[in-house]
Design brief:
The protein is of the alpha+beta class. It has a domain of about 170 residues: Succinate dehydrogenase/fumarate reductase flavoprotein, catalytic domain (Flavocytochrome C3, Chain A, domain 1), CATH 3.90.700.10. Helix content is about 35%, strand content about 20%. Strands 1, 2, 8, 9, 10, 11, 20 and 21 form an eight-stranded mixed beta sheet that branches. Strands 13, 14, 15, 16, 17 and 18 form a six-stranded antiparallel beta sheet that branches. The two termini are about 30 Å apart.
Length: about 550
């Protein structure tokens, strides 16, 4: 197979990679996208698809007010000096530009959604409209390419068949007015798509990460850009410290792809067990990650051969997970923790924090509690009404229909003492915790951890539950428990980059010809998670900026 010559080589095929590819091609570059997996879309396709963009035009069209100054205040107040101020300023300034560019030049269409910033009481935070939710995208436009996209996370699918928009998902989870009608409408739409059902189980009504990635992928393909699947990058090519391309394996052959610029957007290292153990808190395990298996840090390791600098390698985008043995991936517990009628306890039977905290904080709390696993405890009332991880609500999936592998890890007992004995946790501590929870359910005030006090806490609470939408009594047997582990949706640490997404060496100088974005780069969010889409927003923004910087020559000579 002949060597290839392109202007820009993009490694990876998630939202950041596809944004970089579509931008570079639009500005006159010949682009090639290479993807290690046999499927495109990466972890982005598995995600909720939200993109955090402060001070965006979509929100302003709805009459919502935001500003550069407020957004920067929010970021600096939460992130501090972990990240260079110029990178924070660049993100706040250029993310809205990236969004407008993609909505003008690609199939991507998004809407500002009333999803609160995760630290909604912090200076500069907003109670909505910074997060952009992808609109429904017709998967039929992708043709057979639809079936080459990374599947969505099992926990995001209703009955394992289809996903919902942000609005639909919140209504379904919290059982807000009209949720049954929404569910039946989605079921009808799914089964009424006869051509789609003849193709397979996958819904062609794309929402969340599938909508985001599908619309960008179609735009890339329409530009004539090639996307090589099942084609891992083996190493970077370089001469005198300048990157000149990459060695790529395709169909069993190694091909030298010569490129004046290389953009690394190949995800993090969450499925590299050695790197996890060398950098992340202990215990750690790749099976606790909810991301796709191809993220083994290849691009980060390859850049290390050029003396590239790294940062934040001991951090991840944490989330509590339920790991069911034999299931392909752990199930992330994103929103259910805000629902009333549960507590999360350690081996002493004591709560480990505010259950409704943002999932990054809730995931890392398992380490702070020094109790792995910890346990989520709920009663028959909660079980009947709400879903949790691998469990659908009891009204739809009674206990007798629960998967045997799930039953192998849960505990179900008629008394709290028996539950404690089964879990081998302190019975007195558990009884005391439940007693206090039940008092807080009456008063509406969590005196220990302030659950339900912030706007974010209450967002996914049940607003029919009074006086606090996040706290209800735990008193009706049987009592249930599921083990929780500190999982992740990806790692935060990676290659240190500048305002143009250029990779820096250990002396702080740009490595000529090399760029990085997404989880291949050190997170501009530092150790925080500022809002829904705070992973994808930076990935796409710095992918966009990398492409603009990489195509300066094409733009000057066109």
């Amino acid at each position: 197979m002949n060597d290839q010559i392109v202007d820009v080589l993009v490694v990876g095929s998630g939202a950041g990679a596809l944004t970089a590819a579509v931008t570079a091609a639009h500005h006159g570059a010949k682009v090639l996208v290479v993807e290690k997996s046999k499927l495109f879309g990466g972890t982005s396709a598995m995600s909720g698809g939200g993109v955090w963009v402060p001070n965006n035009s979509n929100a302003k069209k709805l009459g919502q007010k935001d500003s550069f100054e407020e957004a920067l205040l929010y970021m600096t107040s939460m992130i501090g000096d972990q990240v260079k101020l110029s990178r924070l300023e660049t993100y706040v300034k250029r993310a809205p530009e990236m969004l407008d560019y993609l909505q003008t030049h690609t199939h991507l269409k998004m809407e500002a959604y009333p999803y609160p910033d995760y630290y909604s009481d912090a200076p500069g935070a907003k109670e909505g409209y910074r997060t952009q939710a992808p609109r429904v995208f017709k998967g039929s436009k992708l043709g057979d390419d639809l079936y080459k996209m990374q599947p969505q996370a099992p926990g995001s699918l209703v009955q394992g068949k289809f996903s919902l928009t942000f609005k639909e998902a919140r209504k379904f989870l919290t059982q807000d007015k009209g949720w049954r009608a929404t569910l039946f409408k989605m079921l009808f739409s799914y089964y009424a798509d006869i051509p789609g059902r003849l193709k397979g189980k996958l819904s062609r009504r794309l929402t969340q990460g599938h909508s985001l990635v599908g619309s960008l992928f179609l735009s890339v393909k329409e530009q004539g850009t090639e996307v090589w699947l099942n084609s891992p990058m083996k190493s970077l090519l370089h001469e005198n410290g300048v990157v000149t391309g990459a060695l790529v394996e395709r169909e069993g052959e190694e091909i030298e792809v010569l490129a004046s610029k290389v953009i690394l957007a190949a995800g993090g290292f969450e499925h590299n067990e050695n790197l996890r153990h060398a950098t992340l808190p202990k215990p750690t395990h790749q099976d606790w990650s909810v991301s796709q298996d191809a993220n083994t840090g290849d691009a980060i390791i390859a850049a290390g051969d050029l003396n590239a600098a790294t940062d934040l390698m001991n951090h991840a985008w944490w989330i509590p997970v339920v790991k069911v043995p034999g299931w392909s991936r752990a199930i992330g517990i994103f929103a259910e923790r805000s629902l009333p009628g549960l507590v999360i306890v350690n081996k002493h039977g004591k709560r480990i924090g505010n259950e409704a905290d943002p999932y990054l904080e809730s995931g890392y709390a398992l380490y702070r509690a020094n109790s792995i696993p910890s346990w989520v405890i709920f009663d028959a009332r909660f079980r009947k009404k709400y879903p949790f991880g691998p469990l659908g609500p009891g009204w739809a999936t009674p206990d007798k229909f629960i998967n045997k592998k799930v039953k192998d890890i849960w505990a179900r007992e008629e008394s709290l003492d028996d539950l404690a004995a089964t879990l081998k946790i302190d019975a007195y501590g558990l009884r005391h915790t439940i007693e206090r929870n039940n008092i807080f359910a009456e008063t509406g005030v969590d005196e220990d951890f302030q659950r339900g006090s912030s706007f974010y806490d209450r967002y996914y609470g049940d607003h029919h539950n009074k006086p606090n939408p996040c706290i209800a009594p735990i008193s009706e047997p049987p009592f249930y428990a599921l083990p929780l582990h500190p999982g992740d949706i990806g790692t935060k640490g990676g290659l240190l980059t500048n305002d143009h997404a250029q990779v820096l060496n250990t002396s702080g100088e740009p490595i000529e010809g090399l760029y990085a974005c997404g989880n291949t780069s050190a997170a501009v969010m530092g150790d925080k998670y500022l809002g829904a889409g705070a992973t994808l927003g930076p990935a796409m923004t710095f992918g966009y900026l990398a492409a603009l910087h990489a195509t300066q020559h094409q733009r000057r000579t066109s």
